[in-house]
Specification:
- With about 130 residues, the chain is mainly alpha-helical.
- The chain has a domain at about 50-80.
- The chain has helices at about 1-25, 30-35, 50-75.
- Helix 1 (about 1-25) runs antiparallel to helix 3 (about 50-75).
- The relative contact order is 0.10.
């Protein structure tokens, strides 16, 4: 039960991080705010929502990291083997009704290649 609760929290944190990152403005947007675009009258103060969103994103990312470690720890102690374990070698069973290789004399003859002609040795005096 605890494993499922942590998975739900983990998924919600992931969705929250994605949303917070998409709401943040890039660094290039600060130049427009410096020339008086009315950001000082916002809800989050003169600096805007950048510090609030950055802090919240960092907190969510830290919690996401903690839940990742928690899930890894809990999955190691679930008691079921999810990996292939090669403790014992595979046992080969021989079929008793199939005879092993026995030479009964009814073998198919193998085609023989013709023999190569013999090479005659030539004495150096006869080669001219």
């Amino acid at each position: 039960m605890l494993y499922q609760i942590i998975i739900v929290i983990h998924i919600l944190l992931g969705i929250g991080i994605i949303g917070l990152i998409l709401m943040q403005q890039g660094k290039g947007a600060d130049a427009g705010a410096a020339f008086g675009s009315g950001a000082s009258g916002s809800v989050f103060g003169a600096q805007g929502s950048a510090s609030f969103l950055s802090r919240t994103t960092a907190i969510f990312a830290s919690l996401f990291f903690v839940t990742s470690l928690g899930l890894a720890f809990l999955s190691g102690y679930q008691g079921k083997k999810s990996d292939i374990v090669l403790d014992a070698p595979a046992v080969e069973q021989k079929a008793s009704d199939v005879p092993l290789s026995q030479n009964t004399g009814n073998d198919v003859p193998v085609a023989k290649l013709p023999e190569a002609p013999a090479i005659k040795e030539v004495e150096p005096s006869q080669a001219e």
